[in-house]
Structures are given as structure tokens and as C-alpha cells.
Write a structure and sequence with these properties.
Strand content: under 5%
Number of strands: 0
Largest sheet: none
Radius of gyration: 22 Å
Order of helices and strands: HHHHHHHHHHHHHHH
Number of helices: 15
Low-confidence stretches: 1-31
Structural class: mainly alpha
Helix content: over 70%
Keywords: Membrane, Transmembrane, Transmembrane helix
Length: 446
């Protein structure tokens, strides 16, 4: 049997199908086995963290841990779990190397650390918090070693630069974890707290999550939109991912120095702005081609949400750069919310709903029924989601000003929460409909 052509091989990579059998092979597609069923446990855990984060975000300070816990339930619980499993999966696909078969233990280690962090800090258990941060970091560094080993064993994969970007993201997590531990333990002087907090957010949101999103959307964004990669996408993405990661590291150093007295603090602000500007240029270079192919994409809620996330991402980083330059704290907080909800949250919803039929669908007929169900009220859900994100971002940015309308935040939560609730209902309906389609298909055949 002849080897597949380079064009066919690249197409299979974009579809997420591994040539060594880890992806949805034709035999799996025709059987009752969901081709991505190994993702089921982690997707369930990530969804549970996301629901808890939404509850804590809406209720706010009356609950233990307040908004801090909401952010970390989402970033550590939801985002980090999905990154750890999806980067491993895509790297296996890209490199065609089996990888580390102990990935289940890696996920378990990560969640032990996450639970210690989210339980330790709100309850004042400093040792548990520090231990949890260490354990979670060990899990991510374990992932880094596995990714690096796969990339080095691969024979010149076309998308090898994507795996390299994943490795850089793991390095950003390490920096963010160290800074977060210093913040949580309480060893920083008051003047340094604000700058280190911003550096912690930049390393985790723009580095750990942002670099993974930028690297993945190059090839998986067009796949999710059911279209082709733009001809110039990779030519722009390769240097953008490399220089963007370097620029982010520069910005983190500059943000840490904001707490320094005198001229050093001013230099730190300038360095941070330059680094963030470089990262913003990288987001434009990567997201631009994705938005270009979105014009010819097959209409679906997933395609619309990825396009919206790729629109919000450069806008958020550019506005964040300007906010750091002038030192406007409310705008910086608003940009953080925009990145978490409008960019990362939206990309996660799009990806999970796209993969849902391949994670839970027991057969081709069931998966077709699920995809049709997932398109229910698509435009309304996407519009409500993004309107809610815009309203919440404006509410935080205008807080304490004459323009800060009190109705913006409640309206934003109503729109965003409503869109997510309907999406959850549609997803559950799709799972049930897929099961019913699988059970009725044999009866019709007889």
C-alpha cells in the first residue's frame, strides 16, 4: 500500500485524525465507538469547573473566595485541563509520534494541584495552596517534556512549529505559577503587588492560554469552520508565534518592574508596553488569515464563535497595551474579562461543541443528528454571548465613572448566562438525540 500524499497527509492533520490510529479512522467512524471518547472524562471535569466558575462569577463576593475563585476555577480548572489534553492530542496528530501513554496520570496530577489551590487560598491554608501550585506546575512541566520529546522524534512535520509554541506556553505557565504563588503566599511588598499581579495574568492568560489558542487556531480554526487554511497563514504564523512568545516574556519582566521605585518603574512600564505591542502584532498576524477564510466558511455556531474570538483577541491586546501605558486599572480589569470570556471562553465553547459528536456520538448516524441539533438557535446564541461579553466589559471599564450605567452588568450577565444555558441545553439534547438515533437505527434496518 502506497504512502499517503503530502496533501492528503496535511488534510488529515487539519482534521485532527492521526495516521497512527489515535484519531477517527474509517473503521471507528463506521463503528459504534466515538472516535474521541478518550476526551470524555476531561471534558466532563472541565465543564464542571466552568459551571462552578460561572456561579461564582455571577454571585460574586458572598461566596467563599469571591471573584478570585471564579477566575481560577475557570483558568486552572477548565482552561488548563483542556489545554493539557488537547495539546497532547494535537501534538500526537502533528508529529505522528505515540507520545507518553501516562497522560491519564498527568491529568490526575494536575487536578490534585488545582483542588489544593482553589481550596487552599480561600480558606487560608497556605501550605496546601503552595503545594497545589507546585503539583499543578509539575503536571504542566511533565506535559512540556512529553511535547518536546514528540517534536524531537518527529521527521520534519509540517506543523512542528505548533508543538514548539505549545512548549513555549508551558514555559509561560511556569512563570505565571511562580508569580501566582508569590501573590498567594503574601511575601510581596505592597508596592510590588499590582505589577506582579498583572505579570501573573499576562503569563497565564496571554502566555499559557493565549499562545496555545494562537498556535491551534492556525490549523484547527479552518477545520472547525469547514474550510481551507489561507495560503499565507503559516508563513505569517511561524515568525509571529516565535516573536510573540518572546515579546510576551519581555512584557512580563516589564510588568514585574512596575512596582520598582523611581525611574526603574518607568522603564518597566515602557518595556511592558513594547512587549505587549509585539504580542498584539502576533495576534493580528495569526488571527487575520483565520478571519479571511471565515468569509467562505460553512455557516455554523462554531465558525461564528471562532471568528468572534479572533476578532476580540487583537482588540483586547491592543486596548490592554494602551491601558498599561496610561496605568488605567479599571480598563485593565475589563480587558482581562474580555480575554477570559470573549476570547478563551468563546473558543472553548466552539471547540467543545464541535467535538461533542465525536466525543459522545456512538455512530455516524447519531453524530449527524447531533450536529443538526447543535445548530439550533445558532445566530441568537452567538449574538447573545457576544453582546453579553461587550456589556460586561463596558460595565467594568466604566465602573466608578459618570458613564457607568448600573444596568450594564446585570444585562451582560443575563445575556451571557442565557446564551451559555441555552448552549448547555442544546448540547444535552444533542447527546440524548444521538443516543436515540443509535438505538433506532438497527430497528429501522430490520
Amino acid at each position: 500500500m502506497s504512502a499517503p500524499s503530502p496533501r492528503r497527509r496535511a488534510a488529515r492533520v487539519r482534521e485532527g485524525a492521526r495516521e497512527d490510529g489515535d484519531g477517527p479512522t474509517e473503521a471507528q467512524q463506521g463503528s459504534g465507538r466515538p472516535p474521541f471518547r478518550h476526551l470524555q472524562p476531561v471534558v466532563g471535569v472541565a465543564a464542571a469547573y466552568a459551571l462552578a466558575a460561572l456561579l461564582w462569577a455571577i454571585v460574586g463576593d458572598p461566596l467563599p473566595g469571591g471573584r478570585w475563585l471564579a477566575v481560577h476555577l475557570f483558568t486552572l480548572g477548565t482552561i488548563t485541563n483542556l489545554i493539557v489534553v488537547m495539546t497532547d492530542h494535537f501534538s500526537r496528530t502533528i508529529t505522528r509520534v505515540p507520545g507518553d501513554e501516562r497522560r491519564g496520570w498527568r491529568v490526575l496530577t494536575l487536578n490534585v494541584g488545582v483542588l489544593l489551590v482553589v481550596l487552599g487560598l480561600p480558606n487560608g491554608w497556605t501550605i496546601a495552596f503552595a503545594l497545589g501550585a507546585t503539583v499543578a506546575t509539575v503536571a504542566v512541566m511533565w506535559l512540556y517534556v512529553a511535547l518536546r520529546r514528540m517534536r524531537r522524534r518527529a521527521l520534519g512535520p509540517r506543523f512542528g512549529y505548533v508543538v514548539r509554541a505549545y512548549e513555549r506556553a508551558c514555559g509561560a505557565f511556569l512563570h505565571g505559577a511562580i508569580l501566582g504563588a508569590l501573590l498567594g503566599i503574601g511575601v510581596l511588598p505592597g508596592d510590588w503587588y499590582g505589577g506582579v499581579r498583572l505579570a501573573h495574568l499576562a503569563a497565564n492568560v496571554l502566555g499559557w492560554a493565549g499562545l496555545v489558542l494562537l498556535a491551534t487556531v492556525v490549523f484547527f480554526g479552518p477545520t472547525l469552520m469547514r474550510t481551507r487554511i489561507a495560503p499565507h497563514a503559516e508563513r505569517l504564523a511561524v515568525p509571529a508565534l516565535r516573536h510573540g512568545a518572546t515579546a510576551l516574556t519581555v512584557s512580563v519582566v516589564g510588568l514585574v518592574l512596575l512596582g520598582a521605585p523611581g525611574i526603574v518603574g518607568g522603564i518597566g512600564r515602557g518595556v511592558a508596553v513594547l512587549g505587549l505591542a509585539g504580542y498584539a502584532a502576533a495576534t493580528v498576524a495569526v488571527c487575520g488569515p483565520v478571519l479571511q477564510v471565515a468569509r467562505r466558511a460553512v455557516r455554523s455556531p462554531q465558525a461564528a464563535m471562532i471568528a468572534a474570538a479572533c476578532t476580540w483577541f487583537p482588540i483586547a491586546v491592543v486596548l490592554g497595551t494602551a491601558a498599561v501605558a496610561v496605568g488605567h486599572a479599571p480598563v485593565i480589569d475589563a480587558i482581562g474579562l474580555l480575554l477570559l470570556a470573549g476570547v478563551l471562553g468563546q473558543a472553548i465553547v466552539a471547540t467543545v461543541t464541535y467535538l461533542l459528536p465525536m466525543v459522545t456520538g456512538p455512530g455516524p448516524g447519531a453524530r449527524s443528528a447531533q450536529r443538526a441539533t447543535l445548530d439550533t438557535w445558532a445566530r441568537s446564541r452567538v449574538a447573545a454571548f457576544n453582546a453579553g461579553v461587550a456589556a460586561l466589559t463596558a460595565a467594568v471599564a466604566l465602573r466608578g465613572t459618570a458613564l457607568g450605567a448600573g444596568w450594564l452588568a446585570p444585562a451582560g450577565w443575563a445575556l451571557l448566562g442565557g446564551a451559555l444555558a441555552v448552549t448547555l441545553l442544546v448540547a444535552v439534547t444533542a447527546i440524548v438525540r444521538g443516543r436515540l438515533a443509535a438505538t433506532t437505527a438497527p430497528q429501522r434496518a430490520t
